[in-house]
Amino acid sequence: MMAQLTGNCNEMEAKMSRPVQAQRLEGLDKNVWVEFVKLAATYPTVNLGQGFPDFSPPDFVKEAFVKAVSGENAMLHQYTRVFGHPALVTILARFFGKLLGQDIDPLTNVMVTVGAYEALFCCFQALVDSGDEVIIIEPYFDCYEPMVKMAGGTPVFIPLRPKTPAPGKLMSSGDWQLDPAELASKFTRRTKAIVLNSPNNPLGKVFSKKEMEIIADLCVKHDVLCFSDEVYEWLVYDGKKHIRIASLPGMWDRTITIGSAGKTFSATGWKVGWMFGPDHLVKHLRTVHQNCVYHCPTAAQEAVAQGFQREFEHYGKPESYFVQLPQELQQKRDRLVQSLLAVGMKPIIPEGTYFLIADLSDFKAEVPNLPDCEEPYDSRFIKWMIKNKGLAAIPVSAFYSTAQKRNFDHLIRFCFVKEEATLKAAEDILQQWKLKKTGP
């Protein structure tokens, strides 16, 4: 009997010794958020790393959520329409249809997803095939590259190149630009799509209409799709204007536009996202959606629908949250800029988003560079900063392809969308740091 059991165990071990990981996951296991969020939680830290507000959403959407879960409509606790709660897709179609000057059908042109993350995943899984090339503009939100590879595609990178600002001026995210000839060279017969993120995370760049037109013309010329990640569409500063590439000639029929209630209403934990575009593209995303997550939380969708209805009625008015939020965040941005300048870091002024990038080249005396170290300098610096200064950020090298990481590992990303107490705590850390650097 014992021999039989031993034999069975050996047989089980033999069966389990075969590779279990799908090849498409090879090399995709590392994730900057997992590593640095864990590190920030391990040490007493003021967390300006991960991109979420530590303040509440506006009262009107919180009240809508409370009403959805505590009211008498029992169906708000049950499954709703698989491709989006009727109230939400209806107001999204109405709202964005007005902005784009486009007749948007809520049932065929709009789909609600589990955050913008799922919308991106559906784009790549539904529309990118083995051998397809996808152009990614660097720096880029880190999920784009692995999502392309998981779909069997090949990422093709094109960098935004910084230009030296005028004497006496701080560098702006607007100083980082594409080279039109270099961009054109990336389009080939294998190019299936380009990923556009404006406002851009991590840089904060808001692409101008002229830059958008260059991209649009190339998409039309080469019959290429555009996945337009516009989650920070309302968070633009200094009078900049967000341009929706789907509004440009020839682009509606080839663009999937992606949005996020998390960024729109400061409610990242609700995980409500959406995408809209022409039905001949969206129908394939519906196929992916119905065969993975299938359904998104009903009550959260109802609350977001009520939020958009309120904003539709107040659009462009002083009482609009979409008007008030960027004004508030611009002040927070400017406050962090001054704090970083005081300690000797060189911030790059973002035109949009939650984030600003700072140049830490002058700090290499505190954390010496190790030329033979495989880990990028910015990653090592932030680990040192978390452990020794109690301040968390994210390495910008994480937003670059392998070939470019070393060229940009003197930059780190801070999130300034934090309540006053958090920003004050960060200021205090930076002030103490300054005193230690300069001495009494």
From TrEMBL:
SUPFAM superfamilies given in the database record: PLP-dependent transferases
* Protein's organism: Alligator sinensis (Chinese alligator)
Q: Which family does it belong to?
A: Belongs to the class-I pyridoxal-phosphate-dependent aminotransferase family.
Q: Name one GO cellular component term.
A: mitochondrion
Record pathway: Amino-acid degradation; L-kynurenine degradation; kynurenate from L-kynurenine: step 1/2
Q: Which gene specifies this protein's sequence? A: KYAT1
A biological process (GO) annotation for this entry?
kynurenine metabolic process
User: Keywords of this protein's UniProt record, alphabetized?
Assistant: Aminotransferase, Cytoplasm, Lyase, Pyridoxal phosphate, Transferase
Instruction: Describe the protein's quaternary organization and the partners it interacts with.
Output: Homodimer.
Q: Which domain of life is it from?
A: Eukaryota
Residues forming the Aminotransferase class I/classII large domain are: 45-427
The answer on whether this UniProt entry bears the keyword Glycosyltransferase reads: no
Which InterPro entries does the entry link to? Aminotransferase_I/II_large, Kynurenine-oxoglutarate_AT, PyrdxlP-dep_Trfase, PyrdxlP-dep_Trfase_major, PyrdxlP-dep_Trfase_small
Q: Name one Pfam family in it.
A: Aminotran_1_2
Molecular function via GO: cysteine-S-conjugate beta-lyase activity; glutamine-phenylpyruvate transaminase activity; kynurenine-oxoglutarate transaminase activity; pyridoxal phosphate binding
Name of the protein in its database record: Kynurenine--oxoglutarate transaminase 1
Q: Which EC number(s) are documented for this chain?
A: 2.6.1.64, 2.6.1.7, 4.4.1.13
Which prosthetic group or cofactor does it need?
Answer: pyridoxal 5'-phosphate
User: Where found?
Assistant: Cytoplasm, Cytosol
User: What broad class describes the main subcellular location of this protein?
Assistant: cytoplasm
Q: Which reaction does it catalyse?
A: an S-substituted L-cysteine + H2O = a thiol + pyruvate + NH4(+); 3-phenylpyruvate + L-glutamine = 2-oxoglutaramate + L-phenylalanine; L-kynurenine + 2-oxoglutarate = kynurenate + L-glutamate + H2O
